[in-house]
Structure formats: C-alpha cells, structure tokens
Design goal:
This protein folds into three domains: about 30-300, Polyphosphate kinase middle domain (polyphosphate kinase like), CATH 3.30.1840; about 310-480, Endonuclease Chain A (Endonuclease, Chain A), CATH 3.30.870.10; about 490-650, Endonuclease Chain A (Endonuclease, Chain A). It is about 35% helix and about 20% strand. Helix 13 links the parallel strand 19 (about 520-525) and strand 20 (about 545-550). Helix 12 (about 500-515) packs parallel to helix 13 (about 530-540). The N and C termini lie far apart (about 55 Å). The mean pLDDT is about 90.
Length: about 675
C-alpha cells in the first residue's frame, strides 16, 4: 500500500549512503591509503547490496509490478557510481606515482616484464588456477572474480572458458614486482594481468589468438535459517548455506568490451536480463583495495588515536570484580574495548561471581569474549550465551563458536524465529557470605567484538544500578521465552510495546511545545526506514517540534517535504570511524531524557528482533552524550546534508573547519576527568 506521505526509496537511499563512502575515496584531505581503503569499502558495500537488498527486492510480493521501475533506477544509479569510482581509481593511480609507486594496468606492462613474470609466477599461479568451460555456468561461485577467455581455434571456431581468479587467501590480488625501475619506482601489478600473461601458454595458443575479459557474478545471499522440529540448528544452517551457494544470479558486472553476442549467450544460460548486467571496465571488484600493499610513506597512513583511559576503569584487582559505584560510559574506539574484556576476564576468575549471561551477534575472528566465557565455565560459573546463528555472513562462524561453548557445558540459546540483536551482558555475584545477589550489567550499541571496536564508533554502559540490572535480567528471561512480556521502565525492549514507547516520547514533545516548554528531539541512527515512525516524525514536526536526525545510512524521510514545516533537519556523518551508535535525545520540557542501544528505526528492529535500548540516568553521562550529539551536529568537514534529494551536499563551512571525530578524541580525556581519579574498590 502506498504511503500518503513522502518517502525516499530505501534502496536508492542506501546507494546514496554508499556514494558518501565514495566521496571519502575522492577527498584529497584524506591520507592516500585511506582513500584507497574507502574505494575498497565502496565496492564491497555495493556487492553486498546486490546479494542482499536486490535479492530481497526481487523476492518481495510487491516486486511484480515494481520490478522494472526499481531495477532501472538502481542500475542507473549504480552505473553512475561506477563511473565515479573509475575516475577515483585513476586519480589514486596518479597520486601513487607521486610516491614512486606505479600501479600498472595491462597495456602498460612491457615485454621484458612479461617475460620475467612468466619465469617468476607461472608455475605457482598455474597450480592454483581453476578453469571451467562456459558450457557449465552452474559452477559459478558467488561473489567471485573471473576472466572470460575466448580462444580462437582452426576454421574460425571459438571456444570460451571461465578462468577463476584465486581468492586473496590463496594469492594476493596485488603483486609487487621484485625490481624497481630506472626511476626507483615500486611497480605493482594486478593478479588479473599476470594471469592474462600466462594464459596463452596454458591454452597453447598465440597471444593474438586469445581474448580475455573480466566478469563477475553475484548470487542471492538473502536466505534466513529455517528450522523445524525434525532438524538440528546445525542441519538447518547447513541447508541455508547450501541455498546461498546455489542462489540465483542477481548481478553480472562485465568488461564493456565483451561482445554483445557472447553476453547475450551468458544471459540466456543464466536466465537473467540486461537489468541484471552492469557494464564496467577491465577490472572487476575494487573490494580488494582494502588489502592494498602497505608500501606508502608513513604520512599517507592515518595515525590511530591512542585510547583515552577512563578514570573509573582502572580496575585495582585483576582477580576481584570491581565495585561499579557509579555508571560508566565507554566510547569506542576512543576508549579501549580492552576495559570490557578485562571486566569479563576478572568475572571469569573471581570466586564471588556466580554467573555470566551475554548476547552475541558478531564476534571477532579470535574472540577473547569466547575464551573468557570458557574460562568462567571452567572456574565453576554458570554461563549462558544467546548466540545469533542467523547473523548474515557470520552464521558459520557463530555456529563454530557455539560448538566451542557447548563442549564446555555452557548453555546456548539459539532463537531461529526471532533474532537476538541486543548487546547486553549480566554478571551476577554474591555478597555477605553468599546471602545477597548483586549484578553488573553492560548495555551497548555495538557488538562485543574487539576487531570492529577499533573501527566502529559505539558506546557501552557499565552499571550496577539495580533498577537497570533487574530489567536486563528480565531480558535474558525473555530471550529464553520470547512470548513473555515483562514491564520495563528503564529499558526500551523490542519487540514488545516498543513502538508505543517511542510514540509517547514524541507525543510528549508535542504537548510540551503547546505548553511553551522547551522541546527538541535528536535521533542518531544507522537507518531510518520504518513508515509508521517516519509518519509520526512528520506529525511531530508539523506541530512545531524541532527534530534533528543524524542517520549514517538509509534515511527514507524527506526533510524538505512541506509537512515538516522546516522543523526537521537530516544529516549523515561519514568519516574514518563508522558511526554505528544509536542515541535518542528528548528535551522533555528542560529535563532531557537520553537513551542508547542496539535498535534502529526499521521495521525489523522494532517488530522482529530482540533489541535493548537503555535510559541514561547519570547526569554526568547525560551531559557527556549531549556534548557528543552537539559535536556531531557541529561538524562541517565530514557532515553531509541528506534532505531527500540524494545530492549529499557537505554542510556549509563557517569561520573554521570542525571535525567531530578528531575533536571528540581530543576532548574526551578532559570530559571524563569529571569523574575524578577516585580509587575503585571491589566487592
């Protein structure tokens, strides 16, 4: 059913976000290696967009009458972005030359280099080369790079082959030539070109009898785990991953020099249309630029921020749980994620700790969180973990982690029908000789993942406030039995009554505006696409309440719509760290309420997942988050205005440049000094 209020198409809005990522690759103020990395992120994002969003769109019930219109708009936008990405590539290529790094493309490789390449690499590459006849297109791997080889035979006959470019865990996509040239330049080749040089010998033909073009296929990866009573979680997951391997083709990107006849033949065999085909260049998949060789001068790499030490996180004992006398808020990556890991490690050792409960969505490859949960179980603690097996593209890794925990007799709570997306941990300990039970709760906006905590901007609240910890305990009860509906006062928990909670906050701002009281709403989200909440925001703005939206990714609200009465401002911050936190601010007549948590305003987060958002009670932390939000809104170097016209205009600069992420890091030490250097005790 069509909405009666204006919205931006979700898919086009997401492409608009990825255009902002591409802007970072084009930004000359970024160090060159960062520009290269952003180009890789842009390409990787686009691949996942097709594998998930376009695949989902094709399978939706309403797609039948919208298919051509939406796919046409998507393709037009993607082709335009591809052109910009190529311009970006050549710009970066020229910048590399200034640092004596020559990134060669195939027609720049001289004959002497070709001869040496054959001697150096032929044997090793041939040993790792898979070649398929074009007759057997069913063998095409998802999200993989290929070379389409056209071999000219006798009597004007031609044979076609797909040559699989080895994955980067087998051979690197970029090869550094062992010799510098006369100008003392490093020379870097694409693996694609080295394979092209070797292929004539492989097919036993003259170079002029072989034409080689790049091509890439993406399959539908949008499959949810379906479990029934006849199958285990493992079997269900295995069936799901098999579906993904054999999913239908959702995109073919190809070298535009491939002949129309050959391309038409491929399309016929795959059962796809030209709407699914994206013309490109001789190199597919800039994804691998995130692994470009680190041979640039030091000044072309962004220096990392040294972690700011929170005064209340200097845990005095490594074997006794610290006394959390007041709430602590950590900001990652500005504060180190190691503080949470230390807390978990101490809890695993302290004999007074009785249990640890945690929800896990995406974990680091070598997860210390898993190690410490196992350590806790071996030390006699009761450990429970809600591991989300249907976290897309992390399903298999999460199953392996679950197997490790189950081997230690740790209780696992897989919920197939309702995703557990919350980021919560509850540590229970005994005091007064075991007669009294108390808790420490951790509630975050991001995953318990030490890898992503270095590049994602997130918050983590650590509290022993009984009003909060008792409600976190109820959330874990709900995870075990999602049909329970506990009452929450400090937490906002999906999927029970969460919409009404947020709507009541908006209605209260409207009432306060009518009374002449101060009103203001700031929402910092990853995505805003839920139609009902967007309509509620329109109604709130129409009645005079000022609303500021900081939405990193999808934003379907049109802030320039007349219904807004110029009361809604939308913007998006894309910078060195991925803005991942969700923060909710309501003026509340001059007594601000602030919440942080895991849930965006999307239908799936509000209605189909277990999410946890917590109210911030500590006045100093509230002020800290107000400073955080106002600082973001002040940024004029990386902040874009996203008014619904999909133009990504940078915020107008005033007297001086202001970069929020750098400023917040520089100020955080002073901000957190308000807590003093008081010594932490232990229980």
């Amino acid at each position: 059913m069509k909405n009666s209020f204006p919205t931006v198409n979700r898919e086009l809005s997401w492409l608009d976000f990825n255009a902002r990522v591409l802007q970072e690759a084009n930004d000359p103020t970024n160090p060159l290696y960062e520009r290269i990395r952003f180009l890789g992120i842009f390409s990787s994002n686009l691949s996942e967009f097709y594998r998930v969003r376009v695949a989902t769109l094709k399978k939706s019930p309403e797609f039948a009458h919208l298919s051509k219109e939406i796919l046409k708009k998507i393709k037009e936008k993607v082709v335009a972005l591809r052109e910009i990405s190529l311009e970006t590539f050549f710009s970066i290529k020229e910048e590399l030359k200034k640092h004596k790094i020559r990134l060669c493309i195939d027609d720049e490789i001289n004959q002497n280099q070709k001869n040496k390449i054959k001697k150096l690499y032929a044997a090793h590459i041939l040993a790792n080369l898979n070649v398929y006849s074009l007759r057997y297109l069913k063998n095409i791997a998802d999200d993989h790079l290929y070379l389409l080889a056209c071999v000219s035979l006798a009597k004007n006959k031609k044979d076609y082959w797909l040559v699989e470019i080895p994955k980067t865990n087998i051979l690197p996509r970029f090869v550094i030539y062992p010799e510098k040239d006369k100008s003392n330049n490093h020379t870097v080749f694409f693996l694609d070109d080295i394979i092209k040089i070797i292929l004539p010998d492989f097919f036993k033909v003259r170079p002029e009898d072989l034409q080689v073009h790049s091509i890439r296929f993406l399959r539908d990866a949008d499959f949810e785990i379906e479990q029934d009573n006849m199958h285990s979680v493992f079997d269900s997951l295995k069936r799901t991953l098999e579906k993904r391997t054999n999913g239908s083709i959702v995109r073919v990107s190809y070298d535009h020099s491939i002949s129309r006849a050959v391309l038409t033949g491929i399309m016929a065999k795959l059962g796809i249309s030209f709407l699914d085909c994206i013309p490109s260049w001789r190199y597919q998949g800039f994804d691998d630029f995130v692994r470009f060789p680190k041979i640039l001068p030091d000044r072309e790499y962004r220096k990392g921020f040294g972690p700011v030490v929170h005064p209340l996180c200097n845990w005095p004992h490594k074997t006794k749980l610290p006394q959390i006398a007041r709430d602590i808020l950590l900001h990652f990556p500005y504060n180190s994620f190691d503080r949470f890991l230390e807390l978990l490690h101490i809890a695993a050792i302290d004999p007074h700790v009785e249990s640890i409960k945690i929800s896990l969505y995406r974990l680091a490859r070598d997860s210390k969180v898993i190690q410490y949960l196992i350590l806790a179980a071996r030390n006699g603690k009761k450990v429970e973990a809600a591991i989300e097996f249907s976290a897309r593209f992390d399903e298999e890794a999460n199953l392996n982690f679950a197997n490790q925990l189950e081997q230690e007799k740790i209780k696992i709570y897989p919920k197939i029908s309702l995703k557990v997306h919350s980021k919560i941990c509850l540590i229970t300990y005994a005091t007064k000789g075991g007669a009294q039970k108390k808790h420490v709760a951790c509630i975050g906006t991001g995953n318990f993942n030490e890898d992503t905590s270095k590049i994602y901007s997130d918050h983590l609240l650590i509290t022993s406030n009984t009003a909060v910890t008792e409600e976190v305990k109820n959330v874990f009860r709900m995870i075990r039995n999602p049909f329970q509906k506990p009452d929450f006062k400090n937490l906002v928990v999906s999927p029970h009554d969460v919409r009404e909670v947020w709507k009541n906050k908006l209605r209260r701002e409207v009432q306060n505006h009518k009374k002449g009281l101060p009103t203001r709403i700031i929402l910092k989200l990853n995505s805003l696409s839920d139609a009902k909440m967007i309509q509620m925001l329109y109604q709130t703005a129409k009645k005079g309440v000022r609303i500021e939206l900081i939405v990193r990714g999808i934003c379907c609200l049109v802030s320039t719509a007349p219904v807004c009465n110029n009361n809604i401002k939308t913007c998006s911050l894309v910078d060195r760290y991925l803005e991942h936190s969700r923060v909710f601010y309501f003026e509340n007549g001059g007594d601000p309420e602030i919440f942080i948590g895991s849930a965006d305003w999307m239908e799936r987060n509000l209605d189909r997942r277990i999410e946890v958002v917590t109210k911030i009670n500590d006045i100093r932390i509230k002020n800290e988050l107000i400073s955080f939000l106002n600082g973001q809104l002040k940024d004029n170097t990386k902040m874009r205005i996203t008014s619904g016209d999909l133009t990504n205009r940078y915020k107008a600069k005033k007297i001086r440049d202001y970069n929020f992420q750098s400023d917040f890091y520089n100020r955080l030490g002073e901000i957190q000094k308000q807590y003093g250097n008081q010594k932490q005790g232990h229980y």
